[in-house]
Amino acid sequence: MPSLRFTLLTLALTFPVLAQSSFQLHGFVSARGIYTSGQPSWLQGGFGRLDTGAGDVTEHRTLALGVAQIGAEWAPASWIDLHAHGVARRDQSGAEGKRAGVVEAYVDLHSEHFEVRAGQFFLGTSRENVGALWTSPYTVSFSPLNSWIGEEFRPVGVDLVWRPNFYVSAGATAFRNNDSMGALLAWRGWSVGNRLSVYNEVLPLPPLFSFSTDFAGQRHDGTVPFEKDLDGDTGVSARVRLQLPERAMMQLTRVDNRGDRDIRQAEAVAQRRGGEQRRLGQQQPGLAIGAAAEHDQAAARGADHKQRDQAERFRRAQPLPLGKTNAHSRRVAAHERDEQAAKVKEADAIDIAGQRGERAGQGYVAA
């Protein structure tokens, strides 16, 4: 049974502090009573896709949750705006993640036709979350797409928008610090909620068995949507919008974080091998010492063989007495003929075996 949510108290405040709107303070406090049933939530490290959950499908719980958001906007001049947005929340007992943090922080530079935004911000793609502090005036919970955007996608970079007129606009973004974008979709799937993740917050993933096998080298506590860049590659985004006043609006957006999965896999393999070697040395020091001793002995044997080979080559290189030269030459020639005959026989055997293998392979292909 899905969760049933109802709002007990919602308070939205807007404070114009200084004249001419040079400084604005936005905030709201929301308290909720939730009757929920089903398996544990993904925020508790379970398989549930909602923000709250019970112990299993046969249980139900009544919860009291709260969220407080506050944002400040300062416009010291007509061409510049500064914005900061933070959140504090009370989640269900046992839920992981941060209880407070920074959602957005950026600076805007704008003129008649251009706008440049730098910092951490939401892309201008949503037609649902159009309220202050990226809220929705329509529903308590966001759509699945905007729920995921609030959880896992927030560029940290620079965005440029061009508006030649009211009907057309185009934007381009270069960003970093969003390499793990899509991890929640891949491991948990789509969800419905209104949770806004904060910078450097660790979000749990479902307890799938593949985390301890195929992904043993990755972090065990979950995924971090917004943190320092992992691979050094800059992500890109582009969008175009066409609109008619009070009639229609169409926007096309493309996003590519250019995450380098090969680098992460190589680092995971190296970390896993290093961890195995350290565990071997800690748990069974005798084996580690024995392996080191065998390595040293093999190196010593290799040095002895090398010295004997050099001595043998030097002895063979010495000139023979005149009387033994012809006999030695005959023996060398006979030995070379024997080697050539052996090579011919070996080549024939290899060729016959290869032909048999080719015929067998052709039979498999034909079948």
Describe this structure as you would to a colleague.
By secondary structure, this protein is α+β, with helices and mostly antiparallel strands. It folds into 3 domains: 4-280, no CATH class; 285-318; 332-367. The chain is 31% helix and 30% strand. It has 5 helices and 10 strands. It has helices spanning 144-152, 183-187, 261-283, 285-316, 322-366, and strands at residues 4-16, 23-37, 60-77, 80-90, 100-110, 114-120, 156-162, 168-176, 235-244, 248-256. A 10-stranded antiparallel β-sheet has the order 1-2-3-4-5-6-7-8-9-10, with no helix packed on it. The longest helix has 45 residues, at 322-366. It is globular. The chain starts with a strand and ends with a helix. Mean pLDDT is 76; it is low at 1-15, 266-270, 285-293, 317-329 and 341-367.
Keywords:
367 residues; 10-stranded antiparallel sheet; 5 helices; disordered N terminus
Distance between the termini: 53 Å
Please tell me the total number of domains.
3
Strand content: 25-35%
Shape: globular
Order of helices and strands: EEEEEEHEEHEEHHH
Q: What's the story with the biggest beta sheet?
A: 10 strands, antiparallel
Summarize the model shown.
This protein has 367 residues and is of the alpha+beta class. It has helices at 144-152, 183-187, 261-283, 285-316, 322-366, and strands spanning 4-16, 23-37, 60-77, 80-90, 100-110, 114-120, 156-162, 168-176, 235-244, 248-256.
Q: How are the elements arranged and paired?
A:
Blueprint: E1 4-16, E2 23-37, E3 60-77, E4 80-90, E5 100-110, E6 114-120, H1 144-152, E7 156-162, E8 168-176, H2 183-187, E9 235-244, E10 248-256, H3 261-283, H4 285-316, H5 322-366
Helix pairs in contact: 3-4
